[in-house]
Structure prediction request, 471 residues.
Amino acid sequence: VRKAAFAQRVLAIATTPDRAAAVVGDLLEEEPSHGRHWFWLTVARTALAFVWLGVVRIVSGRHAVFSGADIVGDVMNAWRFVWKRKWLVVVPIVLFTTATSLVAYSMPVRYRSEALLRVVPQRVPESLVRSTLTFANDERLLMIAQTILTRTQLERIILELNLYQDERRGGAIMEDVVERMRRSDITISTEGTSGLRVSFIGDHPRVAKEVTEKLTNLFISENVRNRGNLAEMTSAFLKSALEDLRRKVDDHADKVAQAKAAQRSLPRSQEIEYEEVQNRFRVMLTKFEEARLTKLLEIRSIGEQIMLVDPARVPNRPDGPDRLDVSLSGATAGFGLGLVLLLASSLRRTPPSHAVTPPA
Amino acid sequence: MASLPALGEFEQVVLLAILRLGDGAYGVPIRQEIASCTEREPAPGALYTTLERLEDKGLVRSRFGDPTPERGGRAKRYFLVTPRGVNALARAQRSYQRLLEGVKLPGVARA
Prediction:
């Protein structure tokens, strides 16, 4: 009995109560000859079909309220219809606005601190000393960002500044806390080709500033370390290659000296090989010199660097939540629900029937 | 006099089933009649919305019977084809017959 009454209520959303009752009666009659879920599936499909019929009636001008025949009449009809059922709209708006406002005012206030970093080109012309960098600025900045957002680095910041105390006291594992910090609270974005904006959003303004400062310092130091390492490694590699070539040049020089002492000339192929090794040695020597100068630039801090253009500040006002926005969203959702209820209510009215033509 | 509306195939099937059933045409027997004659069981949702549409167009009329205990005290909704419905159906069938003229289909007798 309860099942049938509920099905009848569902169908009565989209058609008149007596028609809904007749449909449910038919379905109850047919139910024994069908499977277990047939009744509810059919109720759902029939309700959807009735809703669709309501939409078609509105579009085709056969709707009880919006017939489309007389615009002024329709507007008056619609106004009377809405006014009679104003509570269908007012109640959802009030309920949704109240609920979302309560949620918005119970949410913690959050503060965002931002800093801007910029890549400053090296202060010695590229024509004199070539840079060791092979990536574009923005790509390189994002690569450094990946390095500083590792679990080790973030965990260190969390422990140093005692962040996310509530979560950690509540038993959250560090991996989840780090993930939350990385995904929700830290924002790193490139600005143009040489700028990088770093921000952190936290529950306290001073903490937000301190975390942003730490992140920017990490950026700067990571860049210096990276570039220093790169210059050092390049220089070391070229030095060992140069040593190899120097040994080969010395071997060839010994052979030439021995041939001269024996008063004979070297075979042509050996002469060509000697010239080639000498040339390679000269090229390698030039490269080694360049690498040495680049290393010198890094040591003297006049190579390309990341500079702090706009340091992190203590935010004066909260970043969120935007309570007015949340409340307005609730009001809009309530209004939408009200409209749906009005539409459903209008579907329960029987549309005007066409005049019956007498038989021919 | 309002012009007769064009009928879809399923609308014709439903009108014919109601005419065949006479006074006892409500949801369940209409569905059964269609299933036995066409070997196609229509979805209840499709049948009820088609009946609503036919009533909107003035092609069928409905009345509620007395509540019956086996249906949980719910009344049956009986349908009757109106004269306008008969006319619309006759016109649609004449169109089919004109189309059939000169066409031989296996197992289909010509009118």
